Each structure stands twice: as structure tokens, then as C-alpha cells.
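Working notes for the structural subgroup meeting. M.R. asked for a predicted model of this chain before we commit to crystallization trials. I am recording the input and output together here so anyone reviewing the notebook later can reproduce the run.

Input as submitted:
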Amino acid sequence: MSEILRPQTADQAREVLAWAAAEEKPVDLRGAGSKHRLGHPVAADIVLETAGLSGISLYEPEELVLTAGAGTPLAEIVATLDAHGQGLAFEPPDLGPLLGAPPDHATLGGVVSCNLAGPRRPTAGAVRDHVLGFHAVSGRGEAFKSGGRVVKNVTGFDLSKLVCGAFGTLGLLTRITVKVLPKPERAVTVTLTGLDMDAAGRAMTRALGSPLAVSGAAHLPDGDPAGGPPLTALRLEGPPSSVAARCQGLGALLSDLGAVGALDEAESADLWTRLRDVAPFVGGDGPLWRISLPPAAGPAVAEAIRARAGGRFLLDWGGGLIWAALPEATDAHAATVRGALAPHGGHATLVRASESQRRAVPVFEPPPGPLAELTRRVRQGFDPKGILNPGRMG
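Returned structure, recorded in C-alpha cell form:
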């Protein structure tokens, strides 16, 4: 049984990790635990939770900057930003329900550590593009920081890019500064119904390649809700007059592919929230893969996987992101998924699977030899005794 520790300050967190390093005790780093089932299982003597490192310490709406403790609930940050008509442009998803945890339990540190972005990723960038700076504690038990409150503070090594997506293997984040942006005045969604994946891919590519500033492009081959006709959704955001004009232009651009419809603001908001949180696959038990690849290859890769394994799919990022919910299999269909992906490049992550499958199957895309060696050396620099989330990334 692991001992659970909840430091209330960054200094206390540093003392805990310094002691753990001296004793060579592995530590499982967690926010609220909403994503602790993402990645390989971690065997640790200590669970260190960041709930005590919570609270917004700085928010300057006019400067578009916010600083908060790593354990700050994302829901608290979103509510604060909502009150000022602002938000996190990268649309962080709430994957808790997808992984068997309650909704609204995600923390800022967890989102940054996992580098999780939603449907606006192709146009707004990844989480790492919105992190201005952070404070953290390494596996040596040493406090360190990078960046600041504005982009020009980022000089030398931009460690923010490194810790985003490191899944806590380089350090415990204690405080994070992010840039925020005004929320769009209006958002509507142009839809096409009944397209197969190839036609949907053409529609999304055409829309994203146009000057109409499409901020979201997704395709649900099984409809929404599941069992309905295939749905292709293209989001437009901005001032009302601009959105109206671009909506007309997009309809004309896609009219040869099928009947064009539209969702109003409320329907649009609900759809993109569901897509952001991968809601169509919540409650399933089989393996769920998250596949990132060149957008043009998305439909072909999804069809290749479906031909060999069956399953249900969701295409986001204009085809550059595939969510594949597949039937049970001993290897979670790893060979099928990575075999279909190999000719196109990209990477596949096993997001949901049984613990035994997550122990046996490479959850993250195995890196080539030189990259694996570079990764090992970077981790050794931050965590020479390997106490931070050991084994979580493989």
C-alpha cells in the first residue's frame, strides 16, 4: 500500500522529493488522479498529490496572463476566465470520465504534464505553446524554474516545451503561468451528413485550406449519438457578422459534397464539448487508441484499422487525430494500429486498456534508437535515480 502525501507548499514538496531521492523511493506524482490510468502502471512507495498546491496567485485579464498552483482544479480556472470573457485557447479536454474518474477533476498541472489539447489544436497550437513559465522540483529534490510571465522571458533552454507531455517524469510542477485569450463572440458549426471517411477527409481538408478560418474540423463515422448517420462538423468562430459571412462561404465551398446544414450556438457548443472530451467513447471497456498523424492520411488509416479490427472511430483535427475504440484483444490490437500507421508516420497512444494490457503493450509510440537514447539522457539529468513516475512512459 503506497503512502499518500499532500504537501501544502512548494518547499514541502521539495523536501519530500529530496528525501525520496536520498532513500531511492519511487514516487507516483498525481494531481487529482483523473489521468493516473493513462500510461503504464506505476509501482511506487509514495503517492504525492498536488491538491495542496492550489489556487490562482496572479490573473491580469488586460495582460492575458494567469499563474496558478499545479494542483488548481481546471474547473476553477475556467470559471475565473469565463467571468472575464476569456479562456484557454487550446481547449483542454476532461478525460476523467473516459478513464473511469469523475468529471471536472482535472488539474492545471495534469493538463500541462500530459500536453492535452482539444479540437482547436491545429489552429491554436498545443498546450506547450501556451505555457509561459513554470516552477518545479526535479528528481534530485532541487527546485528549478523556466520562463516567466511574458514570451520574451523565455531565453536559453525553453524547458516549458520539455515538461509538457513528460507525464511527470522530469519533475513535479508546482506553479504554472499560461497565456489566456478572449473567447470568441460567436461560434457556429457547418455540418455535412452521410459522408464516408474519404469524402469527409476531402471536406475537412478543403475547409481548413480555405481562407475562412475554420477552428475545428471533425468527423464522426458512427454519428452523434452513436448509431446515427455519419456527421462531419466544421466550426467557425469570431464576430457575428464575420461568422455569418464565412458560414455562407463555407456552405458554397462544400455544396458539391452533399447537403450542408448548420448548428446554432448552443448545439455547436454541446457538440464540440463532447468531441473535446471524447464523450462518444465514455463508458466503454475495450481498448481506446489516440492516433496522431498527417491529416491527409487519417481516413485511410482509420479504414485500414476498421477493416482488420472493426471498432468505432472519431476523426478530429481535420483527420490529424483518430480516436479508435476497438474490441478486446490480448495485445489491444497494437500490431494492427501501429502497422496501419507505419507507412504514414505519426504516433499511437493506448489511452484506455486493462492494467495487464498496459503492462504488456507499449502504451506510447516506441521511439527510434537515437531518440530513445536522447530521452534517457534528458530524464537522467532531471531524475538520476529514476524516482519520478518510474515506468509510466515505458
